[in-house]
Please model this.
Amino acid sequence: MNTATAAIPSNEVVRFAKFLLQELKPRGKWLTPFNIISIPVILLGLVILYFRFTLGLGSVTNLSQQYPFGFWISFDVMTGVALAGGAYVICFVVYVLRLEKYHSILKVTILNGLLAYIFYSGALLLDLGRPWHIINPIIGNSFGYNSVLFLVAWHFLLYTGALFLEFSPTIAEWAHWERLRKFLSGLTLGTVIVGITLSMLHQSGIGAMFLMAKPKIHPLWYSEYIPLLYFVSSIFGGLAMVIFEGTISSKVFSSLIGQKTHHSHDDIILGLAKGAAITMFVYYFFLAFIFIHGEKWDLINTRWGCWYLVEVIGFVLIPCFMFAYGVRNRRFGVIRTAAIMTVLGVILNRQNMALIAFNWYVPNKYYPSWEEITVTLMVVFVEIWVFRWVVTRMSVFSKE
Amino acid sequence: MDRRQFLIASATVGAGGIPNVNIKADDTRQPKEFVGVLVDTTRCIGCRSCEVACSETHSNFVPDVKGDNALEKKRDTSERQFTVVNRFTTVKGEIFVKRQCLHCWQPACAAACLVNAMLKTKEGPVTWNGDKCMGCRFCMISCPFDIPKFEYSGWNPRIMKCDMCYERLQQGKKPACVESCPADALMFGQKRELMEIARHRVYSHPDKYVHQIYGENEVGGTGWLYLSAVPFDQIGFRADLGTTPYPEYTREFLISIPLIEFGVPAFLLALNTLTDRKDEVREKDAWTEAGANK
Amino acid sequence: MTSGAMVEYYSYVNIFETKGLAYLLLLSFLVMGVLLIRYLSGPGRKDAAPGKKDPTSSG
Model:
């Protein structure tokens, strides 16, 4: 019985059930600041969702015929996925380029990516008009091959599966299933390679979804290169998010992290910041080229032009320089600030494409309702709850 | 089998083996062309009988055309009405324009729909299938005319738009709006015939019409065609939509998918293999050991 | 003739007008890119700027 697919004896099932129940018990204090804020929001969000599913989307959102995509799509799905790009980038760096320096942040980045994709696919389900029909594009009822969204949906699904496979050795280790863990570890290189490929396509695919909306998006944001820009921005958005989340995690969960890992943290941050700076520089070149190629100089003199410059200079070029300065002079505060600005820039770019510069000439603009924001917060908070549960019980952080 | 039969057979078999991404007419032996409607806005009197007939046929909201003064404002189609008539005041007087889905030849909505709920039928009308629709609203994002409307106030929402009375067409009838028009402003038929009639009208009365048939080439050609006495941008039509069929905008991206899905894993595997230092490290260790053992 | 015909039919777009500018842009970014990479690989060597020698400083 040397394969992971050998029959599982029934006393193992009993042992695991007992183990799981034990693990589900809460640890630590109940009334932490985070809990006090998040629990009411989560409960309120559930109430809002009750109304959403019984009375329809219009009862809790500001969606309209002119704005079919709202905050749940532009933020939860589009931005969430772009910022989860750290997972495939770090996997590429560790498994393909074999830079062992980043190995210690690999598991937590994969976990964050996995949770992001699970929760943001969940958020998508909340936004669909008939979510029960989501099995249609999966079971082959009618495949719309001609649709970019078909590609995005399938790649989301497959990539979540790949992330789960990448994280599964950690789960197997937690559940004391050693043979399974070994088997799953052997799959890692394959799933990483598949995961990187899938990521390239669905990150750019989300951008490609807007290609047919050409007459509705302001020309400063629209170009045929949107898919490329979305892919590149997912790289530096992901790296910035890893820096940002890593900064928080290393403080909040510092008791779980070993000395050696703490000490190597600085070098990792410098490396990530270097990567972000270079990627953002390349992105900026693409932006400049598209601008010249599309002869968009007349558009800069307008109010929209100013807004465009705020995004690409204030939230791309400036943090790029800040990263570079922070790396060269080992200024970690500068790097952290640059990471936050970069994340805000990616958020801003996605909101611009889907909401702000979308149907930009229409008089009745869309802004998210308080219910939409509450549900979004609920999704994020529940995700953090799950993250906290996982890292305090599984060996996500290195104990060395 | 003689040579002619052999050539036809092998051509058919060969053609069958070619993957068919853009399905045009699927029955090549009896070519049927797409149907459409010609809307002559110089004839429309704004009675809105079409709005009433359409809503009655589809169990939608039937407007009170006598008392609602709806023509005083510009309206769009909605989740309650597949079609509306708007009134425009121009140098040539009042012009009434019926607005509804234009049933494009290469619809953006059908290309966008990942479950084929939006479908370009082989007869021509673009229809919506509620059994497949997920309510993702991507068709709404993609339609250059902003036609599909969503029932935001329902737990089981539909996408609402004109379907050119597809079920009536199957029974050999004409669309309800065309039948109900008292002024002969709407004419149903194959686009080829409608184009000839439209051209004939324009050439016969060159001062009555602008020399453009809206829908001839816009967005790659639409099933519904319009004639007008004034330039189309004055009666609520967009002139900046281009003549490229909208699915074309995503074609290059979609084509690149299989290339990336093959090329990138190959490239990454190659990188992983090329950066493999196991042999190098083993040799180095062997040399070091040999040196230490001297 | 009252024509509502679209300008797209009758205009001529010369994509080569911007090509020269695009190549200049490419050249300048390549040069700047090399400078950026050199800048990023800067200190951490023994001849780094004085006062910044401590490798565990956290700005």
User: Anything to note?
Assistant: Residues 248-274 of chain B form the longest helix (27 residues). The radius of gyration of chain B is 28 Å. Chain B touches chain C through 13 residues (CB under 8 Å). The CA atoms of residues 132 and 276 of chain B lie 49 Å apart.
